[in-house]
Amino acid sequence: MRISRKSLLAFIFALVALPLCAADQAKGLDQVVDRVISREREVDKSLQQYTPLVETYIQNLSLHEETGNVPSSDRYFLGKADLRKGVRLQLLRSKSDTKHNLFEGFKDWIMLQYEPDGFLQMIFLDTEHFDRQHYKFNYVRREFLGEVRCLVFDVIPLPKSGKGRFLGRIWVEDQNYTIVRFNGAYRGSNSTGIYLSFDSWRVNAGPGLWVPAAIYSEENNLSYGLGKRLRFKSQTRLWGYNLGQTQQQEQELSSIQVESAVPVHDQTETANGSSPIQAQRAWNQQAEENVIHRLDGTGLLAPPGDVDKVLETVVNNLEVTNDLDIQPEVHCRVLLTTTLESFTAGHTIVLSRGLIDVMPDEATLATMLAHELGHIVLGHQIDTQYAFFDRMRFDDKEAFQHFTLTRTPAEEAAASQKAMELLKHSPYNNSLRNAALFGLTLDARAKQIPNLVSPHLGNRVPVSYERQNASAPPPSKRAGQISPLPLGSRVKLDPWSDRIQMLKTKAAGSLSEREQKMPFELTPFMLYLTRQTGASTTPAEKFASAKRRNNKP
Questions:
Q1: What's the whole-model pTM score?
Q2: Inter-residue contact 81 to 52 (CB < 8 Å)
Q3: C-alpha of 114 from chain center
Q4: Distances in Å between the alpha carbon of 297 and those of 165, 291, 396, 498, 526?
């Protein structure tokens, strides 16, 4: 076979070009790695200005022959991080901390103690030695996480690089080269405890701004101390990065103008007095507003939004079908914690995010709202001591201990009875089978998940079968009934704005027998990442911008 001179030259040129292309690719890859390292240092530094709320919920597991690992006990931590001082978490103390956990705490002290700071540490990859001198970077592929295209690398500690180095995989968004997800564990000797495997996620809060949002950790057969085996799952959530309203208030103050010299007419044509009943109602409402405002300020309540409207629609259905005209009108808010609880503060019904998460359907949600609406209909008032503003002066960590929003057993029983009456005349009356199953399942699992069912502010969720619905079906699961859902099934939380929305997911298709039996359980996070297109600045940048405007001549 003959080869033309032209073809031979082209072949020789291709052979010479191959090492050149490989060299260019290696050089380009090195530049990307350098940018990733530099960007991670910037992220670590930028996080020091924030004090987010951090919630970790842990379920210890036991091995079941038929269903695999199932919850056998649980732990719960909620605190406020101070990232300016490293990995430090100041726990918010709850009234329920000492109610049921004396023996459990003693047992954990003997066997294994979870450190809340250890889970917070998982928002950082390696704050001191994330560089080429301590790690090897192997490029794997490109991959989309939601709408964000990422470069995927395996990160391997170099020999003798020291203890506590990260071993695992990182996902790097391909615009600013920020690490948006890392999956693995810290490795090396650790005299103070053991390292756990984890999957840590960050979300975009604006151009160039990525903040830690969620961490999942799991161990199925980890050996520790005298042949013991650790089996657990945990979820850590962060929110409240942009809590401060100081900048907004300062901007509002800067826009106040001096009134004109023309006297303002300070009289009104309407009635200028209040009856004792009206004054009492206004006093009650002031107490309610003070409590809600204070919970807002600590980052424990989600801002008003679409989820509130969903809850208020259900409440409105209950009111209309029972010919109720409640004034002031009933509003709903969402407590951002995972613990299952509901309570009323005046005419505001509050349900926790975790409780909404596990609701199998609207009718079950209606039973919870009907119970709290029963308190309002029966005139069960908020403690009016909260109408005094000095009562609102306390440290955030004392929020749960400061407020007493629980009801007496007599009030709870009366509200449950009123709830059954409201449900009987509601559009949900013939759809309460799942609600009955919800109560039965929670009653059956309560001993294994005591921290999940222990409320911070109100009473324990009313789950007894008799109180849910007197005409409900026999206590057994029938065809078509839906068990309580795993945690995280309903609500999506934005850690920057604290706004929530109902989660939109694709149908999972047919479920295995195991997947149908996961009530109140933890599952891994698989976040759908997006980029925020609007202008976004940090609180410090906003403050500086407002100060510049105010100093203009």
A1: 0.85
A2: yes
A3: 20
A4: 38, 10, 9, 12, 29
Residues 288, 189 within the same domain: no
Do 158 and 34 share a domain, yes or no?
yes
Q: Which of 209, 239, 269 is the last residue of a domain?
A: 239
Residues spanned by the domain of 95: 26-239
C-alpha 311, offset from chain centre:
19
What's the number of domains the chain is made of? 2
Whether residues 179 and 295 share a domain: the answer is no
Spell out the per-residue pLDDT of the chain, length 553, in tens: 555 666 655 655 555 544 545 455 556 789 999 999 999 999 999 999 999 999 999 999 987 766 667 889 999 999 999 888 778 888 987 655 544 444 444 444 445 678 888 899 999 999 899 999 999 999 999 999 999 999 999 999 999 888 889 999 999 999 999 999 999 999 875 555 678 899 999 999 989 899 999 999 998 877 776 667 788 999 999 999 998 544 444 444 455 555 556 665 655 555 567 788 888 888 999 999 999 999 999 999 999 999 999 999 999 999 999 999 999 999 999 999 999 999 999 999 999 999 999 999 999 999 999 999 999 999 999 998 999 988 888 888 888 888 889 999 999 999 999 999 999 999 999 989 889 989 999 998 999 999 999 999 988 887 654 444 444 444 455 555 788 999 999 999 999 999 999 988 765 555 566 666 789 999 999 999 999 876 444 444 443 443 333 444 3
Asked, for residue 469, whether it belongs to a domain, the answer is: yes
Are 163 and 546 in contact, with CB atoms under 8 Å apart?
no
CB 529 within 8 A of CB 40: no
For residue 286 the two structure tokens come to 């002031």
Kindly state whether residue 541 falls inside one of the protein's structural domains: no
Residue 214: which residues within 8 A CB-CB, separation 6 or more? Answer: 200, 201, 235, 236, 237, 238, 525, 527
Distance CA 170, CA 275 (A): 66
Tokens 């050089």 sit at which residue?
27
- CB 201 within 8 Å of CB 181: yes
Omega into 328 within 30° of 0, i.e. cis? yes
d(CA 257, CA 251): 12
Q: Does residue 342 contact residue 453 with C-beta atoms inside 8 Å? A: no
SS3 annotation, 254-300: HCCCCCCCCCCCCCCCCCCCCCHHHHHHHHHHHHHHHHHHHHHHCCC
